[in-house]
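QA checklist item 7 of 12: single-chain prediction sanity check.
[x] sequence parsed
[x] length recorded as 316
[x] structure emitted
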Amino acid sequence: MAPVPAENIFLLPGELAFCREPTTVSTLLGSCVAVTLFDRRHHWGGLNHYMVPEAIGSLPDGKVGRSAIPALVRMATMAGAKTGDLEARLFGGGAVLGAQVTVAAAILGDIGQKNGELAREVLAALHIAVVQEVLGGTHGRRIRLDSVSGQVQVETMGGTSAVECVRPPRRAGERCRVLVIDDSALVRQLLGKIIAQSADFVVCGEAEDPFAARERILDLDPDVLCLDLIMPKMDGLAFLRRLMQYKPIPTVVVSTIAKAGSAMRAKVLEAGAIDTIDKEDLRLHGQGEAAARILLPALRRAAHALVTARPQGISS
């Protein structure tokens, strides 16, 4: 029996991974395409996530199919795979942009279709067989690759775009769902108690770092984020910038390095945060009254905010 995957990796646009250890690699696709590669001999696997078929302006290579697919193949061969043992699967390429006009759409036309065509062309030139295609349609998809078996689980997302540019309003009387992201379990617990004091909010989940947060966001679809900045694996500012490009969510930053007048506070607001709070002002280890007076109004401002995507280049 094949071993159960022990690690989980989630990829954003432009990222790629090839794993020799049992791993589940997942991503969320709209018009983007993911190519998965599976080494039949060694039972290794990986995938990429690219946004457009050909280079546009200064778009990074990882977001361009023409360069991203060969890069994934190189990663596989550097891991010890031979191209003759590799098989590919293609996913994504949906017509999910609707009326949203992007630079890429204006230049390339049907991006999803052209992404799929490019994948077939490049893989054929590399003599790698495509054994499965799940392309096109009008829905986004979430995919999960089991690196041990090469099998891919496909989940159809909502009917417009996998990337939300403006979040829909909540139903009347529905409590705002907050995801708390902080590397300290104690801080998460204390913030949760403060949030629970209000009838407006409910804590829908917690995450100890940005990588865990990405999974929670996809699983829970929170209305508002409460985000720390100093965290392992990825700092909160870098995470916020990526989030606002890919899946914008109203965010309140709570951090000791986001003090009033600081350069960090300016950077956080520029990145798209609705508000910033100095964690020391909350006096979390006190009775909670001061924290509630500061935190809850900030969350309410975020809950009523309309957040638009802030693309770094082009958003998929």
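[x] summary fact logged: The first strand starts at residue 7 and ends at 11.
[ ] second reviewer sign-off
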